[in-house]
Write a structure and sequence with these properties.
Elements: H1 8-28, H2 42-51
């Protein structure tokens, strides 16, 4: 049986590799490109938001 202390480095290394690989896959593969669509009459919506003079972040 392998002691847990000897497994910390492989555990952390595999966690980092999985995180980086999943981040790259999420950014490069086109799975979620169809999730974002333009609003109907987007020009009117943007004009209304500009007329409200909202501050950044609202």
């Amino acid at each position: 049986m392998v002691p847990l202390a000897a497994l910390w480095l492989p555990i952390l290394l595999s966690a980092v590799i999985v995180f980086v690989a999943s981040s790259i896959m999420h950014m490069l593969l086109p799975y979620h490109r169809s999730d974002y669509h333009q609003l109907p009459d987007e020009d009117k919506v943007v004009a209304g938001l500009r007329a409200a003079a909202l501050k950044r972040g609202l």
